[in-house]
């Protein structure tokens, strides 16, 4: 069973969330703003930190001028390791590197010309940081045409929050993506989609698909930049610019992104999602890469959705199947659905038994769906809510391999398992990992317990346990005195 601290925080969490949802439902409807919002004023957010202070650098990019859609890129420090150290073994046929001239600074340190050039960004300007993970990473941009950098797989991540809250740069999601980036040695692109009710369905789903198209565009631009040769022209590197002279190539993805590789959680997912809990049962072995994950020369993309973000990931995967070659060179080869936000008109066993479960119970999820779906389209069998309804999107046999992660005390678990079973019936690799004694949002639960509110309730639970212990001792003493006196 979950700990006392988890139970107390769940009560506090549900009280606040229910109050917010009811207030939004009762408030008069406002005119829809296409620009939208991607976070709430009361959300605890983590600022972008490019310093590799904990082994991961982050930066935010606003990719759509017409909406508030943005992404946060998580780059692990391992990306700064030379690729020759990890991916190539030295051979006698390789020519020795040219001798590099040294440059001595007034404080006594010596830098080679190669190191000095690596401190410059792709536009020829000097960055104020260095490439060391322990040093500052301010304004760093890899040099054009530098093939010495380590290439990492790319993961497209969608956060949770019940459609109306959460953010790609929230404290919980920031720590979760940092963990994925470090443990899986991958570049994580977290999507900041528009929230409801300011922007109802299909705004969040369209934002997810728009970011996938943006990744495809970045892959094409990176290839075009390579064709320029990375040579210097009048002291500047050649690069593709827009009409305002700004570079259109995202340098982190161009230098370090390698979608042809697969992240570790596709290969060995057991220890990636939660450092404390481990799955106790699976519907199918997933300790090796399924055959359908391998092969092909396309730029592979893996989708990772958490809670309602899993619904977005599943939608993006369906649209990617429908798009076919239109997304070339990017191809969605796998998706990971973590405790997806699925629901339906016919309740499952877990929906009946665990309707009043921890954090997101069924009553609050109904409120969230009412705020997300347009009133004229509201239905629990909406394609955004129930993936098992036939006639929506491409056939299931065309879906990419799907890894589903569920929690034992989550009322939505049975429908997620049923969706995975339907995929396996049509020969789609769809393993299921179930975590025992886990609740909805368990992957970020250790992060939630670091927030001030959660720490307060954790402290309260500890104090209450000490008070109960003290009370029992006092009761025993009183009983002993009573027996002695009598």
TrEMBL record:
Highest taxon of the lineage: Eukaryota
Cited InterPro entries: AB_hydrolase_3, AB_hydrolase_fold, Carboxylest/Gibb_receptor
Residue ranges of domain Alpha/beta hydrolase fold-3 in the record: 155-443
Ranges where the record places region Disordered: 25-52, 82-142
Similarity comment text for this entry: Belongs to the 'GDXG' lipolytic enzyme family.
Entry-linked PANTHER family: ARYLACETAMIDE DEACETYLASE, CARBOXYLESTERASE 11-RELATED
Name of protein: Alpha/beta hydrolase fold-3 domain-containing protein
Organism: Flemingia macrophylla
Taxonomic classification: Eukaryota, Viridiplantae, Streptophyta, Embryophyta, Tracheophyta
